[in-house]
Design a protein that fits this description.
This protein is mainly alpha-helical. It is 62% helix and 0% strand. It contains 8 helices and no strands. It has helices at 12-24, 36-49, 52-64, 75-90, 97-115, 128-143, 151-172, 186-203. The longest helix is centred in the C-terminal third of the chain and has 22 residues, at 151-172.
Length: 211
């Protein structure tokens, strides 16, 4: 895992390609960030162009993402987790030390608590909560790796406990053939959830897609 950011989805060649694409297809991110898609749009704009203002708007949204999920599952983690974590990575240089510390404490707690929930845990591999929590775990581990003492443990949990021992056998068994068990609505989220974390891991030398 490189020390420098970004670590998720963009490496040097991908970032150069994105900058070349942007030169031909410029866009202005939304002025008001109210959801994870708008945050990712702004964070990508900040990363590609170096715009501190775009990153700052994405960071303001990411820092506002807080939730308490005492029940069996946690929708905000699936809805907002990727937008917040990816913003942390793509706009890392624009975060203040205080923001970095607050975000790290918060997402260490969220990640550990959500992975411990039985709903969306081991044995529910075809469930969208399972994939959402795996996505968040891998992304947070990679995004925070050199700044977070708990990141290595999260990465091991994601790649070994959830992937090698649980999800990969499921893909070779009950899910063989590639049809998501939750159908055309929730089921398609399963593949969406894998895009950024699996791409990031493949850039680091391990091809989870082909595994």
């Amino acid at each position: 895992i490189p020390v420098a950011h970004p670590r998720l989805f963009f490496d040097g060649p991908r970032l150069s390609a994105a900058q070349a694409w942007f030169a031909q297809h410029p866009y202005t991110p939304h002025a008001s960030i109210g959801d994870p898609n708008a945050a990712l749009e702004a964070a990508a704009h900040g990363l590609i162009t170096g715009s501190a203002a775009s990153c700052r708007s994405a960071i303001a949204w990411a820092m506002s993402v807080q939730f308490s999920c005492p029940g069996v599952s946690c929708d905000p983690a699936r809805w907002d987790g990727e937008g917040a974590i990816v913003t942390f990575d793509w706009c890392y240089d624009q975060l203040t030390p205080s923001e970095r510390a607050t975000f790290t404490t918060r997402w260490n707690t969220y990640t550990a608590d959500l992975n411990a929930k039985p709903w969306g845990g081991i044995g529910m591999e075809g469930n969208n909560y399972y994939l959402g929590y795996l996505r968040n775990t891998l992304e947070w581990a990679i995004a925070s790796y050199h700044e977070n003492n708990e990141a290595a443990g999260f990465l091991n949990y994601g790649l070994v406990t959830r992937w090698e021992q649980s999800l990969r056998p499921y893909f070779d068994g009950a899910a063989k053939g590639g049809q998501p068990h939750e159908g055309s609505a929730y089921g398609r989220r399963v593949f969406e959830y894998l895009t950024i974390p699996f791409t990031a891991v493949s850039q680091l030398g391990r091809d989870l897609w082909n595994e």
